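Tokens as discussed.
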């Protein structure tokens, strides 16, 4: 849902609004421009701006990608008809709106009022509007969500942008019921595109300078420190094709197929993580 930029033969260095120097690629191709960001206020402004420009999907056919992510969610997190689901960093709400018929209640939160406004507009024409709500809230505190009130927390394409990941996981842990689960779809920090290919070719991969992708080991360690009992991960097909020339996206498509066959996770761009709060959690 990001704006990638086409540069035609630009070279040199551009000054950002805060005076920092950003390299410009000597490229004729589509590439990412990294926006400086230091805190959640910067994130809010960035995503409010995205909301103003419509948030179109950049990485492929929007409905096919949505269906694929919902299928992953269904098979790996198994939403139940009795579940209260919290979508963290819900954006325009399309995952929660897609899950509407399958769950008891859904709450979407996002730090960007612009995104929440778009989600509420979509909700008005949804047959599931009576059981879904969208609220502005910060994942680092989840102030509007009561302790132990959520069966399934999901976070899709958003965790990599969240600044204080430890605070986010602690808040998720607090709001989950015992035996509740957390499901996350995020880019894989070990992906060959992120390291080494993009750095070698001089392509930026962060939309915000504060973005931080995790490896599964880093993610599992943070989840363990937060108190989650059991975690499981699986790779999924994510090719950030909106951020690169078509020829590279085609190559990464081949890598993905090879990675799936040879079970080489570094050839696959997506990391899915599911974590369970213990049935007998002592705190929160
Ligand atoms: C790339 S969008 C993804 C939106 C949606 N999950 C989707 O897949 O379409 C990332 C979203 O995370 C939200 N976000 C980032 N940091 C957040 C935070 N600390 N608390 C709540 N939302 C946050 C942004 O405002 C943005 O809407």
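Sequence:
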């Amino acid at each position: 849902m990001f704006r990638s930029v086409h540069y035609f033969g630009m070279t040199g260095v551009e000054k950002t609004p805060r005076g920092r120097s950003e390299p410009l690629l000597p490229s004729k191709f589509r590439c990412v421009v990294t926006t400086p960001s230091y805190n959640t206020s910067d994130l809010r402004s960035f995503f409010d701006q995205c909301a103003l420009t419509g948030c179109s999907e950049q990485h492929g056919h929007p409905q096919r990608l949505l269906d694929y992510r919902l299928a992953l969610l269904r098979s790996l997190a198994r939403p139940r008809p009795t579940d209260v689901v919290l979508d963290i960093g819900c954006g325009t709400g399309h995952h929660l709106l897609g899950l509407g018929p399958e769950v008891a209640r859904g709450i979407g939160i996002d730090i960007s009022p612009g995104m929440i406004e778009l989600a509420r507009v979509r909700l008005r024409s949804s047959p599931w509007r009576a059981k879904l709500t969208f609220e502005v809230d910060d994942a680092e505190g989840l102030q509007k969500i009561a302790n132990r009130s959520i069966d399934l927390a999901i976070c899709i394409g958003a965790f990599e942008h969240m600044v204080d990941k430890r605070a986010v996981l602690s808040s998720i842990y607090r709001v989950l019921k015992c035996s509740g689960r957390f499901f996350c779809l995020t880019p894989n920090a070990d992906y060959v595109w992120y390291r080494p290919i993009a750095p070698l070719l001089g392509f930026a991969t962060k939309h915000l300078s504060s973005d931080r992708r995790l490896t599964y080991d880093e993610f599992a360690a943070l989840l363990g420190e937060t108190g989650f009992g059991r975690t499981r991960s699986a790779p999924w097909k994510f090719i950030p094709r909106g951020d690169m020339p078509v020829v590279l996206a085609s190559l990464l498509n081949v890598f993905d197929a090879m990675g799936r066959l040879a079970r080489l996770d570094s050839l696959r761009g997506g990391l899915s993580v599911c974590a369970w709060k213990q049935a007998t959690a002592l705190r929160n």
